[in-house]
Amino acid sequence: MIVVTGAAGFIASCLVTRLNAANFNDIVVVDNFAVERKLVNLKGKRLRAYVDRNEFFDWLAEHHEEVEFIFHLGARTDTTEQSREVFDLLNLNYSKQMWQACCQYQLPLVYASSAATYGSGTLGYSDDDVLLPLLRPLNPYGESKNDFDNWAVTQAEKPFFWAGLKFFNVYGPNEYHKGRMASVIFHAFEQIRNTSSMTLFRSHNPDYADGEQKRDFVYVKDVVEVCYFLMHHRQHSGIYNLGTGEARTFLDLTLNTFDALGRTADIHFKDTPEDIRDTYQYFTQADMSKLRSIGYDRPFTRLEDGIQDYVQNYLVPGAYM
């Protein structure tokens, strides 16, 4: 069996689809299934069992001999949430318990970290372990992910294989439920379809013109391919960036969304909301050399191609991956 936590969410549900496509059908999905708006992400999937996240460790104690691999992708991902208690509970302490269970039962583990750990990017975007204690995330979400990364690398006892993945700006199908936290591509599609225009955040940094803020946008299909690769290549444990290695502007993103919809571009700007203005990242770009060094050689999807696929094959028809 393969365990996937956060399975009804965005990235994890796409991973389940990828596993099913490779005929892995004994999949145990773990989540808070009371959040009904996410359940459609698992519709039609071939699954072994549903396990509530609060009951998972009791379940694992009974079934660990049947488990082959754990993908721990469940987390509270709201970057505007300010309650450290919430992040300590769901992101830090739950992940510690997962790690310790994988050590106890000798299970391989891939878990979700985040590019939010890099904060303003003053130290760059290298996933070298020596930089981990020096990183200063800009919000409690990023802090919770960085706290766990730092805790993990200092543990004397580790799973026989483990990998933490620092997700950059992931976009793609199955993010319909995420609301404000959905990708800018999703919001661009909604605005363009409804108003024939798109409003972006104005730059409050003199080094960047309006719309020229840059992020490393990575298609979710590439993310799950990396997860699948790591399940089959367990020689090199560690923390890895997961982006494309190429930063693109929000104007690039928006213009390509207009193009995918066959609409004439009409772009406006508004002030960045005050609750995120001081913690806004103006530039992210993953250093992908570490993942490449362990043999991952698939090309990453160009932003133009990813947006075209996402818009035409998922957003327009309202389809799921």
Automatic annotation (TrEMBL):
GO molecular function, one term: NADP binding
Entry's Gene Ontology BP terms: ADP-L-glycero-beta-D-manno-heptose biosynthetic process; carbohydrate metabolic process
Active-site residue numbers: Y141 (proton acceptor), K178 (proton acceptor)
EC numbers for this chain: 5.1.3.20
Catalytic activity: ADP-D-glycero-beta-D-manno-heptose = ADP-L-glycero-beta-D-manno-heptose
Matches recorded under InterPro entries: Epimerase_deHydtase (IPR001509), Heptose_epim (IPR011912), NAD(P)-bd_dom_sf (IPR036291)
Annotated TM spans: none
UniProt family annotation: Belongs to the NAD(P)-dependent epimerase/dehydratase family. HldD subfamily.
Quaternary state and interactors: Homopentamer.
Protein name in the entry: ADP-L-glycero-D-manno-heptose-6-epimerase
